[in-house]
Structure formats: structure tokens, C-alpha cells
Amino acid sequence: MDQGQSSSAADQGVTVTESLVTEMAQRLRTPAPEVDASVVCLISWAGSDGFDRRDYEPANVRIGPFHRDPSHPTENEKKDALHHLLPHDDEQGRADDLNHYLDEMARVVPRARGCYSRWFSTIDTEEFKCMLLVDGCFLHSRFVPSRAAPAPVNDDISVDRDIVFLLENQLPFFVLVEVQKLITADAEDNYSVVVDNVLGRFQALVRLNEYSAVTVPRPTTPPCHLLHLLHMYFRPTSLPLNDAPAIPRTRSAVAAAPTPSSQPAQIPMLPLRNNQGAAANGNGAANEVIPPPPGAPVRQTRWRAATYYHTAGVRFMERKVGSGDGEARSILDVERRGDWLHIPILAVDNNTFRMLRNMVALEQNSPQLRSSHVTAYCLFMSQLASTKEDVELLVAKGVIVHLLHSADDVAANLAGLCDGVVLDAYNPDLCYLRAEHAALEEVCRDGWKKSKAWLRHTKCNNYLMGLAVLAGAGLFFCTVEQSVFAALSYFQGKK
Fold first, then answer.
1. DSSP characters for 96-137?
2. CA-to-CA distance for 168 and 172, rounded, in angstroms?
């Protein structure tokens, strides 16, 4: 019996080995095509499987190949959008239009595949072109009014959340332009029509939620997808919109591009892990700090907790997001003025964390974008307000306005914003808050400011106590003065 089982196990092992050899031989004969290196922001798998993925997965509408499901209930709604965009009224005319649309989409399938971090070889060209057409028409109907569909279908914030905020749930932006070309007979600039309508919708969205008051001009280079375009609204005011370096347009150009002799040596990226509230006292214990190599810039340690800064003498002030003088242009415009830290008001709901996490994933997966501003901001907020006490302090100061169940929920979500991400904290172009961090460290090391803060927080936390302290101080100085004059009179009398 044992020999039979051993023989069966051996045969099974041989079968598995042969299957693996066959599969690898097939891969060597037909290597998977490489993704397009000219695409600045690939549509990528966002969250690691080791973390909570709820903020990366669509709840209602599935767009693109990552979460493709032909049996999903919303597929009928997407096909209705395609039906409305077919110009002919009769059945034969619609069939001809549909075949023409599919033929045109078949031409762009290779280009569309190159916009994803995976090739999706299990989806053949026929399925891929159908997906591009159906999903493209649905997205077009959401943003671009037309004679056939003058208003967005089912104008629901949950739908916009799925098709705009999620990195994995994206379609290449040029597909929307291709749809516009198919349904428009006019010789107009189809790209301008599409991008202007999307920009108008996005501007209303970010201003309604007070995330940004930035006016993004029409990009001369088309965005890679909708989230990439939304990301353009989140930039510190100190940085221009067009500060990104030129990107080589082909993979061979990337390999052949020379390295300037004046370019500084590459500094390793800093992994940010254990980003929970363990270091709320500001001692940095939650993240191991390794001494930098000789000659390297001083390593930026973690931000301290809001309660620690508060006791050290840093004073928090909310900053309104708007276009007026002194107002922040986006939530990223954190500014230090002396001992005051002016932080733009962050209106927190579940969509806030979903949007920020996916923008962090966008930056993490797009090194050619040369932008980590949202990641730097999320790192700042996740370490500043990682506990209930920190959140309650910032709520009291007007910096955080939330609609969640409790301050604990806000703290837990903020603390997890940067789990598993990597940030080059040495590079001021990527970590734009580095100067503010260094200045706050100087405040925290100032013993006199700590003493003033202690007096302000414990003895002068209301007007009556403040008056009492002033009166006590005045009485103390009067007593000292009286003692000095008495001593002088005594010594003069002895003479």
C-alpha cells in the first residue's frame, strides 16, 4: 500500500514538473510584450495584498481589465450608454455603426494594453476591444454631454468615486478621445472637447469638497487617465504645474539617455513601515532610524504627534482652502509662520481616504511622474494625527472636520495612509515639507518655548486664569522691589 502511494506521488511530481517545463518553454518562445515606457502613469495594481484593499476596489462600476466582470449588473448600464451614442435609429444602421466602432477600437488595442502594468494575455483582442468600447462610452457619457446623451447617466457620487478615484479602475484617457471622434462628424479638436469637460467636472468636485482651489489649464500632453488628471489639482503652491522633467518617449531612449555629470548621486528611498500610532509621544520609536552613510544629508525622521508639538510650543491654525489672499490653494499648502503651523482644513469622509490612498499608489507606481507631493502630505498627516488625542486636538483647532463615527476612526484611517509606501525624504523636490519638518524640530528643542507653552497651557488657558497669573506676577515684582528698597535703606542707615 505504501509503495502504491509512493508511486502515485512520484508520478504526480513528474507530471507537475513536465507541466512547468512546458509552460516555461512556451513563455520563452512567446515572451510577453513590454509595457509602453513612454506612459508616465501606468494603470497599475494599487494596494498590496497584505493590506486592506477595500479602498482600491470598485463598489459599483468596474472599468478596465483589472476588475473586469462581464456578468456584473452594471454592464447593462454601460451598454445602454453605448446604445445612446449610436447615431442611427434603425436596427441595421445601429449594427453597422457598432461594427465600425469595434473596428476602430481594434486599432488601438495594442496602444491601450501598453498603458497597463500587465499585459492581460488571458483577454484576447476581441474581448479587449469590446471592453474598451463599452467602458469608453460609459465614461464619455459621464463627462461629455452630447446630442444623444445631454446629461450624465445616473449622476451618483458612488459612481464617480469608482471611476475617478481608483487607480486600478481606469481606462486610458485617449480612449475617451477616440469615442469622441467616433460620435462627432465635425472636424473639431476632439481632445480639447473631452479634456475641457472633464476638467470642469473635476474642478467642481475638488472645490465642493474643499480639497483644492487650483485652476488646472488644459494639459498640452494628454493625461494618462482620469486619476492622473485629478492628481494635477494637488500640488503645493510653491511648485509650478509644469515643473516635471521631460520623459523619454521610448524604452530604448530611456536606456540610452545619458546621466548628467552634475546630477547628484542617487540616494536610496526610505521605506516607511510600522506607521501606526506607536510613536505618538514624538520619540520616533515606531520607525527605526538608521544612521545615514558618510557624506549623506541628515536623515529626516518621522513627524512628531500633534499633541507633542502642542506641548513643545507649536501652535496650530486652520487655513481655509480658496483663491483669496493668504488662503491655501490646496490641502497640500502646509505653511509654518514662526511658531505657528498653518494647516489647510481637511474635510474627512470615507471618500477622502479612498482618494488619498489611490493618489499615493499612483505616485508610488509612477517614478517617471517625479512627484511625491501627495505621499509627503499623507505621511505628514498620518504621523501628525495617528491617535485619538491628536485628532481631537486638531478638530478643536479647526484643522480637521470629519463626518466619521468617532475620532478613533479618523485616527485609524490617517495612521494607515502610508502603510508600505516608500518616500525619498532626502529629495526636497519630492518631500516638499522637509524645510517645515526641520524648523519644527528646532522649535521642539527650544527649552524656553517649551516653558512658555507649559505656562500658556496650564496657567493661562482662559482669560480669568491669565489675569490671575498677571496679577500674581505683578505682586511678585512689587514684593521684590519692596525688598530691594528695604535692603538699600538698611545699608544706607548703617552708614
1. HHHHHHHHHHHHHHHHHHTTBSS--TTS-HHHHHHHHHHHHH
2. 11
* Cβ partners under 8 Å of residue 336, min gap 6: 342, 436, 439, 440
Report DSSP letters for 137-199, one per residue.
HHHHHHH---SS--S-TT--HHHHHHHHH-STT---HHHHHHHHHHH--S-S-HHHHHHHHHH
Beta bridge partners, 343, equal 318
Q: Is residue 253 over pLDDT 70?
A: no
Distance from C-alpha of 66 to C-alpha of 132, rounded to nearest angstrom: 13
Contact 375, 363 (CB under 8 A): yes
Does residue 62 contact residue 69 with C-beta atoms inside 8 Å?
A: yes
- Short-list 57, 38, 60, 36, CA closest to 47: 57
pLDDT one-digit tens code per residue, 11-41? 665 565 667 666 666 555 545 555 566 778 9
Q: Round to whole Å and give the CA distance between 150 and 143.
A: 10
Nearest by Cα to 373 from 493, 212, 259, 222: 212
Cα–Cα distance for residue pair 327/321, rounded to 1 Å: 6
Which of 406, 402, 303, 421 shows the shortest CA–CA distance to 352? Answer: 402
CB contact at 8 A, 170 and 226: yes
The CA-atom distances, in angstroms, between 173 and each of 115, 137, 229, 413 are 10, 12, 9, 30
Three-state SS for 298?
coil
Map residue 166 onto helix, strand or coil. Answer: coil
Q: How far apart are CA 470 and CA 490, in angstroms?
A: 30
Q: Kindly report the length of the chain.
A: 495
Query: pTM (2 decimals)?
Result: 0.78
Beta pairing, strands 340-344 & 315-319: parallel
Closest to 364 (Cα-Cα) out of 221, 114, 167: 167
pLDDT in tens, 79-112: 999 999 988 788 888 899 999 999 999 999 999 9
State which amino acid sits at residue 427.
Answer: N
Q: Are 59 and 158 in contact (CB under 8 A)?
A: yes
Distance CA 141, CA 163 (A): 12
Local structure of residue 210 (DSSP, 8 states): T
Angle at 268 between CA 288 and CA 223, to 5 degrees: 115
How many CA atoms does the CB half-sphere of 274 hold within 13 Å? 10
Answer yes or no: are the C-beta atoms of 137 and 179 closer than 8 Å: yes
268 alpha carbon, distance to own chain's centre:
21
Give the DSSP letter of residue 295: T
The separation between CA 66 and the C-alpha centre of its own chain, rounded to angstroms, equals 20
Q: Where are the alpha helices (DSSP H) in 324-368?
A: 350-364
Query: In whole angstroms, what is the distance from residue 403 CA to residue 238 CA?
Result: 30
